[in-house]
Each structure stands twice: as structure tokens, then as C-alpha cells.
Amino acid sequence: MSPEQRAVEQTRAWVQQAVIGLNLCPFAKAPLVKGQVRFAVCESEDPRTLLDALCAEMDALVRADPAQIETTLLIHPNALLDFDDFNDFLDAADAALAELGLEGTLQIASFHPRYQFADTDPDDVENATNRSPHPTLHLLREASVERAVAAFPEAEAIYENNIATLEALGPEGWKAMEAACRALNLPP
After folding, report:
1. What is the pLDDT averaged over residues 149-158?
2. Helix (H) or strand (E) holding 169
3. What predicted TM-score, i.e. pTM, was given to this entire model?
4. CA distance 31 to 37
5. Angle between the 83-99 and 47-63 helix axes, to the nearest 10 degrees?
6. How far is residue 149's CA from residue 153's CA, in Å, rounded to a whole number?
7. Which of 9, 81, 110, 130 suits a disulfide with 115, CB 3.0-4.6 Å?
8. Is 115 exposed, middle or buried (0-12, 13-18, 19+ CB in 10 A)?
9. 82-91 pLDDT, tens digit each
10. Rounded distance, CA 95 to CA 1, Å?
């Protein structure tokens, strides 16, 4: 398996086991089951190359039929491995979104192996909601997000439910899930 294929499979395992399996995002299952999630990889270590890849993926998503590609996960296993660098890069990503005139059309969600929300400690359980096997930029269609939120009457409760789920799983349970996704040792 190539490094690119491995990054995709580890990320797909994380989506299946953590995001969908723990119901961290109640909107994630349908696009994955329908084959509407594009897993793209930028293997470059250079943030400028990553920004170019991000712009290309944003353009491709906007041009794609939503019935074919609903959302894109841009995995970058070699760039922005330091969370502070990754977090700083998000300003450039948002600026690119604006420069392309795609504000209100797309949004970017961020995931990282060492994700840390402001005012939390690195080991705080809520950080796991945005922890992925590799740094990843998730491109979402605004219209899809609006439809999903309208269909889920208590969308604001998702965060609280996620914290409760992760607290019940515990740090050791989360570490085991992360390790299984990286090793691709998953239940059938």
C-alpha cells in the first residue's frame, strides 16, 4: 500500500469508527455510504503547495455534482504536523476561500492529530472531537450544512453529546481507537 493509500485508508477508518461509529457527526454517514466523500491527499511538506492543492480541491468541489461529490477531505500527512503551524495556516485557508469568492458556498473544518481547542489542556477530552490520524481540511458545501442542521432539530446539542460520548469512552478507549485506525486493525 502506498503512503497516499495508507493515509486515505487510515482517514476512512477514522471517519467510520470515530466520526460515524461514535456519532460525533450525525450528518457524516449518508455521504460516506453513498460514496459522495472525496478523499484527496497532498503529500507535499510545503504549506504553499498545500494551499494550491486546497484551492484546486475547493474549485473541484464547487464544479462537481453534489450527487457525486458532496464533501472533500484533503489529507496532508507531511505538512503542518505541528498543531500551532496548522492552526496558523487556517487563516490562509480562509483567505483563499474568500479570494476565490466561495464564502457562503463552502466552509472549511479542521482536524489534526494534536487538535486543541482554545482554553483547553492538551489532554482534555473535547479535543478528541477534532483529532484525526493526519492533518485534514474538510471542505463542506454550505447548502448541505444548512439542510443537515435544519433536519436535526437539536444541532446545538451535538457538542454536548460528543463530550459525554468521549468521556464515557475515556482516554484509553480513544487511544485504542486512534491506534486501530492508524494500524487499520478494525473490526469487520
Report:
1. 81
2. helix 157-183
3. 0.95
4. 6
5. 40
6. 7
7. 130
8. buried
9. 999 999 999 9
10. 35
